[in-house]
Amino acid sequence: MFKKKFLSVILLFSLLLAACSTGDNDGESVSEDGLTITTSFSVLGDIISQIIGDYGSVEYIVPIGEEPHEYEPVPSDFQKVSDADVFYINGLDLEEWLEKIVSNVTETEIVEVSSGVTPIPLVGDDEDDPHAWLSPKNVIQYVENIVEDLVARDPDGESIYRENAEAYIEELMELDEWIEEQVQQIQEEHRVIVVSENAFKYFGEDYGFQTEGVWEINSHEEGTPQQMNRVIDIVGEKNLPAVFVETTVDKRYMETISENTGVPIAGEVYTDAIGPEGSGAETYIKMMRENVNVFVSGLSE
Ligand SMILES: [Zn+2]
What we know:
Blueprint: H1 2-20, E1 36-41, H2 42-52, E2 57-62, H3 75-82, E3 86-89, H4 98-104, E4 109-112, H5 136-153, H6 158-183, E5 192-197, H7 201-207, E6 210-215, H8 225-237, E7 243-246, H9 252-261, E8 265-269, H10 284-299
Parallel strand pairs: 1-2, 1-3, 3-4, 5-6, 7-8
Helix pairs in contact: 5-6, 6-10, 8-9
The site of zinc ion has 7 residues, from loops.
Keywords: Metal-binding, Signal, Transport
Protein name: Zinc ABC transporter substrate-binding protein
Main location: other
């Protein structure tokens, strides 16, 4: 008898909590400060911030400079996710640590923002490549997914979300056109991107580059002598003027390739994180401009 009563008190208490919380999905009880959003890594953090503007708050889990594939979540990350109205992830298996979040935080809804993007498979693997954000064309799809989800969650903010999203999509379309123009400066046979992790496949497919990496994906990072020799051969055969290195990987592999081929590393590119304050790559759009500038200056001679 007591047990039953105790249970119903708990039930009543959780119902009250649910009614007061900002996390329910009926769109009626979002706090005046807007939605509290947590996302997995810094690139998505910026993209979502562009749509939210000042109306709500966005936090991301994987710090700039750390690995988004095989990150080890800490207790404060679980807190960030459970405090959020929604947890936005890239999906396409980027967040290999998602299971740890799910087993510690059960009440926050998880939404994949890459839905609808046509996946490119990893070479020699039946998994998909998660780096869809490296093509702005896909990011337009991300923005459309995010804005629809925000509007459903918080109808009061609809006009703000839609206006911000529209302006941002416009900027992404300008970026897309700008990239198309910039690429023309590189002769066709030099349109080859060589980095440590073969993360530019979506970019390469959309802008006409062959892409090569020492390894396919950071979570399978190897850098075996065979992998190194394969890339050294490609750089030589193609007579490439430059190779590149990412801000988020161990640079020694590309340094070895550069030493073995005599081809310089033309610069650092951003793949799995935006840049820190003062880097000139603090937003997704800036990081992509920086990447393209580095590709063009290295490959067009
Ligand atoms: Zn990656």
